[in-house]
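Hey L., structure's done. Input below.
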Amino acid sequence: MLEFIRIQRFKTLLDASFPLSNLNLFTGLNGMGKSSLIQTLLLLRQSYELNALNKLGLLLNGDYVSLGVGQDILSTQAGINSIEFLVKWYDHDPVNFEFRYSPQSDLQPLAKPFQLEKPENVSLFNHNFQYLSADRVAPQSVYPLSDLHIRELNSLGNRGQYTVHFIAENKLKKLSIPQLQHSEAMSDSYYENLNAWMSEITPGVRIHATANPQNNTATLGYSFVQGKDTTAEFKPQNVGFGLSFSLPVVATILRAKPGDLLIIENPESHLHPAGQSVMGRLCSLAGSHGIQLIVESHSDHFLNGIRVAIKQNKIQPNVVRLFFLDRNQENASHSSIVECPSIDALGRIDKWPRGFFDEWDRQLEQLL
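Output:
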């Protein structure tokens, strides 16, 4: 599990440190650098997967992230032409990844060897990892199959494109973490709990996932419980984006096991406020039982779901880390400032920097 990251001279992170815990929430105004921590981890992973990290250096373009060339990522205020990532895992010595600046290349050469014994044992580099981008797969008639991803790589795809295939093949599987069982679920099966959590987001919904190996596709449908009856099955295109965007998130969390690393961008996308709060609570339960989550979100409802979970003792406040990224507009340096508000056992936050989930109060003040 990741314990600490220091990033130097990467984009707007001139020199920023992040002490991590199980549930880590990154927020801030657009363009302030909150995605840069996630991009750092994805760059390291994609470089490792392509056998470049320990031999060649940092690959800027790949399956996880595409950032261009060196001049696109070096901080404008960098005093030296290098990029450094210091990463500390629990029970490991700190590892310093240093790369030389190559302005016109998508490969930033390794400046010196790094020391990390058995990188395959840490979740950032092994199969105990899942990344879900903000650009998740939209509602569609059919979805792709991939035995390679769902069986060998233990992945639902970076856009959640193999979620339907995974659900179809794992309906009877039991939850790895019993504490993630929903109170309305009739059993500890993966499929029963997936439906129960999704029903809290969209009342009465039932998921119908089918794999069709003969034409290498999977199909998804939704029906709804109405009293004692159940509706006919609807295509994803006819029930809105919220279900399709939230399904990979819920599916990913419920299939996770202790020690997994989940990186999720905007888990609340296209959801109504109550659904966003449910996502916050689900992520809290996962973080409380050994899953490490790095989440980017703009939602005060998602945050409040976490705060309520803390107050209800579903997660301890020291398991949650909040990171708010901002820039001083009066400072000549184009670099991010990282602030870390903390939450107490009652769900209260000790400081609210301007721009930190305060827009409701500001608009309400104008109305009053």
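The helical segments are 36-49, 147-152, 163-169, 190-201, 241-255, 273-288, 300-311, 359-367. Residues 249 and 267 are 6 Å apart (CA to CA).

-- N.
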